[in-house]
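Order emerges. As here.
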Amino acid sequence: SDLYYSIVITTISFFKYNSNKFWAFRQMAESHKFFENNPKIILYKLLGTGAGDGFLWPDFSTYSILILWKKEEFANEFISKSDHSKIMEKKAYSRHDYFMQPIQTHGSWDGINPFKNCLVEKNKEDKIGIITRGKVRLSKQIDFWLNVPQASNAIKRAKDVEFYKGIGELPFLAQATFSVWKNLDSVMNFAYKSKDHSDIIKKTRKRNWYSEDMFTRFIIKKNIETSLN
């Protein structure tokens, strides 16, 4: 199984729409058919995205799919040739695909941590992708959402953050962020030197916002931005 896990790849893809927005929204329910029972996939998540500060307001022009593939070639093949990609070429305005491998992870997502068995060595120069995901307790909703702008502004103001987006399966109840950083040093500087960030981490622990959370750092092997229409 170690050999099997050493070659897996994670992709996170963002699809932007200028039109076809209602169609795009429906795909959150309808496009499971391309992924469920697909023998090449270990796990997938269809994700909406947030506008503005985090995930409080949905961004109906952007959707995302997170997939853990058994092999990198399966990911390449799906992104370049699948029926799903052909439909996206007709409907979406652009797509951006990140290929990643995890270097550090803790916590769980829906009861499992799919990344813990496939960690790889890090290289100081690699770009870093980070996924943080939390399931917010019902009783803590208001307190949590009042603090979201502080958390997202901390990331936006950070030096060397190249991309940042709120992602999630359920607005309000389960939210996540994906961010891309220049290298590991820039991540460490933010983690240990940003007062806003450390304040939020302290509040999260003290106020016990999440019933479940997961934090994973990846190295980004490649990312491909494609204009479709």
Observations:
- The first helix runs from residue 2 to 6.
- The longest strand covers residues 210-227.
- The CA atoms of residues 78 and 85 lie 7 Å apart.
